[in-house]
Amino acid sequence: MNYSDGDPRDQLTHVGSEVVRAGLVVGSGGNLSARGPGTEDFWVTAAGAWLDRLERSAFVRVRTADAKIAADASHPPTSELPLHLAIYRRRPDVAAIVHLHPQAVLLLDALREPIRLVTTDHAFYLRRIVTTPFRLPGTAELADEAAAATADGTNCVILSHHGCSVLADSVELAHKRALYLEEAARLTYQALVLGRADALPACPPEFLRAVETGTQTTA
What we know:
Keywords: Lyase, Metal-binding. The protein has seven helices and seven strands; from the N terminus they run H-E-E-E-H-E-H-H-E-H-E-E-H-H.
């Protein structure tokens, strides 16, 4: 899949298929969106869409400024539309949002166990993870909490007992961040099973400092 060209819907269709194949999603447990190039409109998955069965007709075009849904929409948008709207309005640099319900991430959240950023990939792509309190799915309260959590540039938000939202300036980068977030969660879980979570070291601090200062440009 070439993420650099093509319709955002095709890129998101690829992401949907891949995250299901990778075990990050069961059924329709998530929703995806991306801004169209050169426009404030964005495409978002329709309500109840199975992420591994997406096609262009499974997306709804929405205007960011006033939440107006395109007249030619054949399906209602996901019930999490307020979440996508709030983040796009708060973060003009964000071009894609991947909202999923990955099992390892949610298990650790339920156990109140922080996800450890162990590898250079985790540190480079995720930087930091913020968890928001539980709010009812699909509500303005949940959307406002998530958007506020991203205001400082955070790109990985866990919505307690619900899911996670990862953001990026491209569909490809949002996809990568979703994969690395679940990988970090799985490694943390394995350390818990081994009884060694407290001894699990974070990524070396010199790498973290280099990432924060911008002198480290690759993982």
